[in-house]
Amino acid sequence: MESVYIxxxxxxxxxxxxxxxxxxxxxxxxxxxxxxxxxxxxxxYDGEVIKTMYIGGGTPSSLDMKDLKYLFDIIGKFxxxxxxxxxxxxxxxxxxxxxxxxLKEHRVNRLSIGIESFNPKKLEFMERSHTFDDAVxxxxxxxxxxxxxxxxxxxxxxxxxxxxxxxKDLDMVLKLNPDHVSTYSxxxxxxxxxxxxxxxxxxxxxxxxxxEYVCEKLEIKNYEHYEVSNFALKGKKSxxxxxxxxxxxxxGFGLGASGYIHGVxxxxxxxxxxxxxxxxxxxxxxxxxEDKMYNELMLGFRKMxxxxxxxxxxxxxVNMQEVFDLKEALDEEELIVDGEYIYINPExxxxxxxxxxxxx
Length: 360
Ligand SMILES: C[S@@+](CC[C@H](N)C(=O)[O-])C[C@H]1O[C@@H](n2cnc3c(N)ncnc32)[C@H](O)[C@@H]1O
Ligand code: SF4
Fold this sequence. Notes:
Elements: E1 3-8, E2 10-11, E3 23-24, H1 27-44, E4 49-57, H2 65-75, E5 79-90, H3 97-105, E6 110-116, H4 120-126, H5 132-145, E7 150-156, H6 163-174, E8 180-185, H7 193-196, H8 204-220, E9 224-227, E10 230-232, H9 239-245, E11 251-253, E12 258-261, E13 264-268, H10 272-276, E14 281-286, H11 289-300, E15 307-308, H12 309-316, H13 320-323, H14 327-331, E16 335-338, E17 341-344, H15 352-359
Parallel strand pairs: 1-4, 1-11, 2-3, 4-5, 5-6, 6-7, 7-8
Antiparallel strand pairs: 8-10, 9-10, 12-13, 13-14, 15-17, 16-17
Helix pairs in contact: 1-2, 6-8
This protein binds S-adenosylmethionine and iron/sulfur cluster.
Iron/sulfur cluster binds at residues 11, 14-15, 18, 20, 22, 57-59, 114.
């Protein structure tokens, strides 16, 4: 394992659409949580050199400086590589010079900011608040402190959002000159405020047009579309996420975190009470060779470059074409083979799931 994900579930407020594993911030719980996290890490971590570290949430930046210092003491237990990629998720409203200097001093070299939108109506619907001016100021501050690898998240496809609204919103986000953009079309999850109140997703056709526009616009702006929802300037692809899409193993620590260690995929409990009591695990599954090949395909085709056929053979000692029936998709040019790689034709990337279902 060369990658570590650490989940910090606390958020200062809860967004209407969010189905992630999160709890409303409550100061006294944080130390208890970090104590439990330390126990879990001591239980699982075998001392390997770690090349990518990702602190996600929830909202890791919701922690106060005292708790952050404790979190980074815990991170000090890991054997970190010299060329470590170290991502820390931040909420714009939590960003201060003190926080940024602290993160920089503790080897964080990639920030991920949940901007989502600057449109007041969208922000109100999502129950998030920030202004464009504040984002510009914070972005300048991040650059001044020396962060040269900054991701922003962008959500589109809010009910009543028109293409025009979305274009303007994306333009504003791009004015921040991020190094990396993750874009998501709104998913209405049952277990969220918007799901419970019966919000209906936007029509599929509109969603497809928006996705097409987002891809074109970002490519014009020199962002490489390297994964279904992810775009990066040169040299700024997320190594941590690529490790995941390459179906490699990784540690996952924290509430609701998932991981993949020694051929076993596991998922931690989402119950804070259980986690604080040291009952970390919710479920685990020992993967067969077939499971691993299935995951290789499901994850690998998310990358625009696709799957390396030689690498597939090296890992599983069988040709990919012998395991999966790819002929029809190849004949219909939904899949393309180019040199060592097989990938989904970019024209069909929006209907990727249907292609995968057909193959599997
Ligand atoms: C776990 S959140 C982490 C970011 C941070 N907690 C925040 O919201 O600022 C990761 C990203 O997933 C996306 N996301 C979360 N829920 C979503 C939903 N229901 N539909 C689409 N995208 C969603 C958002 O872009 C969000 O920034
Ligand atoms: S979207 Fe992010 S900030 Fe909002 S509740 Fe979910 S994890 Fe917390």
